[in-house]
Amino acid sequence: MHFASFPANFAVWTTFLRTGTHPISFESFTLRATGDESDNLRHKVTGGEMAGQDLYQVVSTGRTLHAKGSDQVVRDAAKLFAIPEPQARRLLLKGWVIKDQLASSQALELRAGLQKIGLRVEVCPAGKFDNQQLIARIKVAQRHKARAAKGAPPSDSNSAGRSHENQPKRAPGKRSAATKVEATVTAKASTGGQQFIGDSKPPITSFWGRALVGLLPALVLPVIFMGVAALCLYGAGYALWQIPMAAWQGELSGGVVAFSLLMAACFIFLLSLFVFPYLWFPRNVGPKPSEIPLNRSEGRELFRLFEQLSEKTGLPRVQEVTLSPDAQVFTAPTFAQVMRQELPLNVGLASVASLRGGEGMALVARGLGLYQGKLHGLLAWLVLDGVYRLERMQWALENERSALCTSGEPNRLQKPLHQLLVACGYFLLPLVERLEGLHRTLTKGSAKYLESRADLWAADLIGSEAFAAFAERWHRLIHADLIVAETGREAAALGQCFENIPAAVAWILDNLDEETCKAIELAMGQTSDPWDACEAADLKRVDAVQQRGLDARIRRAFSLQDLFTDFARQAASVSTAGAGPDCQVVENRRLLCASREVAEAVQVLDTYFNRLPPHSFLPLRRSTSEDMQGMDLQTSIDWLRGKLVELREMRGRSEALRQHMAAMQLGVALIRNKVRINPQDYSLKSASLASAQEAVAVKRSELEETEKQLQQIYAVFYQRLCLALVAMPTKERQEARNLLRHLAAYEALATHLERLAGYGRSLALIAQYLSPGLGERELVQKYLALAARELDATFATVESSDLLKAQGLDSALCIKAKREPLQLLPQRHKEALALVQALEARCKYASSVILEHYQVKLATLLNSCLEREQQMQLNPLRLLRTV
């Protein structure tokens, strides 16, 4: 990223920060809301609205640039502002106002400078956030934490971890939480004729009187526009009527005709300027995400589940489904659809890929629940659609749209009138903002009522006890979606796009660091916007739901992905549907890499291995077969070309087998510890110890055989490397051998890397199934000890190697994985779950750091080999799309 506006004299800029007209006050920091507001503010800064504002504030987005680590940014910020590091760490909290009351040039200059040290920031209008509201929100979050720490009710403590499918007192094996491992077991066979949604209780009750009271203020906004429309039509009609009336009375003249036509034109112009944007713009203009309709044949089981949801709960029927790549699940019906109780549903595939089936259905129920019943549906349509229309109207007027040309590109005949409407539209913007404020003031009570009612519909499926964990995961999902969206925008500027956006969001969600999770947890104290149907629940909403004590309708695990005929293809299609014609589809990992160096390394590895690099280290030994050893460089490349399809299949099989092995081994350990389990939750067919051990042995032999075949193919890749190295000039060959010596140092970490990956999978499963009563405490403590011991062994191996330390691997591990002593498993479920998740994250971070350093070093060597192959004019390993 380039910062053209960064001042040449950094010392002058630093002085400006510390001694400016409005000194920085860390006590006046405020939190900003998440969601669509981020995009709106970004548009205001980059879209030319700066000139229309006088003063601005710089707000932290809570994220760092890809090439910067959070600890480094904190240290730089502490030096820059001359403050302690704990205070500087607050800069990473999303929404902190760093400096307020700045001129436009100062704001842009400050933004560029902060991004120079690695902190992503945004510029907003001055005074946009209220400090008193922030203090209140933080106090709410602190009270919520204190209540949980002092012995909150079971619903609070049980729901603080990852969301489960709600059988709160059961052993881990009986908890119905869907995982990727389980998805292949429950699969589509579980949908045929079986019911996911119970009907053992009545639906959410409706308060007709409350809805009737809210209709009158909600009608004010449409009455205003309809009134203006009626006056304009009446005025235009009356003006035109004067022409025949004058002719009837014998007073017709050119002046009368001209005056009547002018008055009619004025009224029609006012109608086009003010009323048409409100009625027409919402469904015809604005930036639309890539969306594709879902055919019933491709989502037959999904439509069947939605029908089941409607029958069991009384929610509106889903008429049609539109797929989008983001994480939003919502409905935007027309008036007629609300009255028919048949609604369109937008399903963000990122939520499908990231959430368990019950959680995904909770979002669906919440979206449909806003419009449940004709009376409540009408109220929701008036309350929510009014804000939606005004926001779209404001966007259209700001972006030179008019009723004459909603695309913003008029033809030659339309251009003069279009420009007149656009010019006059700027003067309407303050009026539109006041109308939106009026509507929000009048409908605030109804919006909060509808919001709480929708939350109850979500809790009706997953239960009140699981709602807190669901809300926390919902917040994290929105955060991950925003990160991927911003990365996608940066990639689009370079002519690239994600290969699979839902998978990218799921990956970000699973790899959020601890600091970000704490920031998100604090952000839950913000009061949510009741007019935003996609905004995650805040702490007040969570408390309100938990007080209702709703039981869960969904009592078994399932995956929404399995209800699609081909989810992977749908996700890829919807990810590229909105990309430009010149955009290159790029693998997710290229765009999600932590630094440019790693991104370049991944590109080299993809070229050398035809997008099928080894999951771990490249085996540094040649094939033992004499026939293989007798092949020259070109013959080796040709042989590998014929093995690409087989290699792809074996890599996929190996990864699936490893996932199954982790689940099965945990299941065997639970059975051995006499914990009752559901065998299918752990990829087992029986809860018998002998049968489970036999299944593990069979799966282990399959994995060993697959790994053996993989090693044989990758041994030929190493042979290809050696043959290219021999063909290099002396100087280059010496440098390549030196790199090979550094790569060989990583061999000592191969076993540690494999074990860390295994413990990471096991701890993730433990976190999924951890029971509220911690009946499996002894087994969990054993896994924690094994993982911690493996981390210590990994650190020790790195510290004992001069070659690895010379590459900075030891310091990188200390920063990312953090060397900490093992703790005993706490007594409370929430603290125990946090400890398991923290150690899981450390295992994953350690593995990723080691692999990144290794891949960068390997890519340097392979790049020299590729250059030598080109110089020898060899037929290359074709870059086929094999994944």
From TrEMBL:
Taxonomy, superkingdom: Bacteria
Disordered as annotated region, ranges: 145-182
Keyword Transmembrane: yes
Transmembrane residue ranges: 211-236, 256-281
Keyword field: Membrane, Transmembrane, Transmembrane helix
Record bears the keyword Membrane: yes
Name of this chain's protein: Uncharacterized protein
